[in-house]
Amino acid sequence: MNRLARMVVATLASLCLFTIGAGVATARMLPARLALLEVTHVSGTGPVRPGSALPGASGLASRGQATPAGVTAQISPIIAGGGLGHDVGALVTDLTTGRVLYALNAQVGFTPASTTKLATAVAALDVLGPGATFTTSVLGPSGAGGAGASEDIVLVGGGDPTLAAGRFPAADYPQPATLSSLAAATARALKARNVTSVRLSYDGSLFHGPIVAPGWPGLSYITTGNVAPITGLEVDQGRLVSPSVPHVPQDEDWPGTAARTMTPSLDAARYFARFLRQDGVPVRGPVTAVAAKDRSGSAVIAAVHSPPLAQIVQQMLSESNNVIAETLARHVAIATGRPGTFSGAAEAVMAVDGKLGVHGISIHDGSGLSPLDRISPQALVRLIRLASGSGPARLRPVITGLPVAGFYGTLAAGSFFGPFGPAALGTVRAKTGNLNDVATMAGIAYARTGQLLAFAFMGNNLPASLGEQPEMTLAQLATALAACGCH
Q1: Contact criterion met (CB below 8 Å) for 402 and 417
Q2: What's the structural domain count of the chain?
């Protein structure tokens, strides 16, 4: 069955199953879920064997719940079928107790692809807090202007990875800050100061360093639209065609037709200049780059703020958004006293996660685009367990942001990962990852036993001949856990 046909069938099936099963699933799931709100703790390393518990967990299992033998019987045949290739790592545990129910190369480092974003999300929420916001501001002279005066102003990027050019539909979530709103506020402030025109500069220097991470294949991730250069000032994640400004005329010096821009800060400033003109404030001369921090006697004359970090993390995980991930990793670096570069960001994420007791992470970027990244299945499961209850409450947006099988994000009906069986629809939440020869998934499955199971499945060195089979196999494994009686 071709991909389009699979998408149509999966979508129709999902709608029917959701309508029929929602009431039954809710009635069946709530009491057990409430009972699973026991707080546990994760620490240390140690061996991982079926029947044991992750270090720091109680290791207690209730009667009638899944056993290592039962889980092994359920998923071993799927893994042995070769759909994930022959370089496979896996770990399944009881989410509440930490009891290991299945382990295969669980402490070995595998290329994680976008499951790396779990490590970035946990580190960002732990260091910055779920309520943190990022500010984009405009600086101008601190004194009042005279009638008909012209002023120099600076657009300063604060590393808002969700900043948009124009307004988004009111139903969109989260609602980003916009340059159009910032321009309107700036124009009001300038007119109140009797300023009739401006010279515009911009500062996107919050982040710096190389524009590609170790292991990235040159600029191809940028030209194919996977990511943009990470700067302190950019809009619409560096897309050349803004989804929030559908019919903006092109300037002669506007960038070309590549999927993402190579000059995100300059492009953002040009958008801002257009909005200022539309609001009645002409911009004189060319737009230029400056370091706003070197301007003495400047004052903030207008500012906009991003959504809270909790919402940004949810967007990053559901979309598997690489620009957001790389930006948040740099914020972790700066908050921990490291440079806002790829290397500083990677070191910061590893350090913060390590302090939370998560080891087995060796990364070179914050998004998982680098094939040099290594994370063990055990580390992924520990990240999931920390965010789901054993760690600080500020980590919970990691779980609420995970895609939902059959319905939401990268696990939605018709997505690249799937199709899922009926047992998994609405009951599996997981982060996905894939590169050319990598397919991974880590998350939570609500099993037929009433247990919540934390899992990580990782396939590396996948032959091209497998096509989409690895992603289908991951969906089969998650479905098997959701359907698991496994006594």
Answers
A1: no
A2: 2
The answer for residues whose C-beta is within 8 angstroms of residue 388's C-beta and 6 or more apart is 95, 396, 399, 444, 452, 454
* Residue 332 maps to a domain: no
- pTM here? 0.85
Please give the backbone phi and psi of residue 419, each rounded to the nearest 5 degrees, phi first: -80, 155
Under DSSP, the state recorded for 178 is B
Residue 348 belongs to some domain of the structure: no
To the query of whether residue 265 is one of the catalytic residues in this protein, the response is no
Residues 245 and 166 sit within 8 Å (Cβ to Cβ): yes
CB 93 within 8 A of CB 101: yes
Residue from 14, 114, 137, 306 carrying the catalytic annotation: 114
- What CA–CA distances, in Å, run from 367 to 149, 313, 316, 414? 46, 12, 10, 23
Selecting among 14, 117, 244, 298, the annotated active-site residue is: 117
pLDDT along the chain (487 residues), means of 10: 38 40 37 32 48 52 75 96 97 95 98 98 98 97 66 96 88 91 97 93 96 95 93 93 59 50 95 95 94 73 98 97 98 98 98 97 98 98 95 95 95 92 96 97 95 97 96 97 89
181 is catalytic: no
User: Of 14, 306, 320, 388, which residue is the catalytic one?
Assistant: 320
Catalytic annotation present for 320: yes
> What is the domain-level CATH number for residue 242?
3.50.80.20
What amino acid is encoded at 39 in this protein? Answer: V
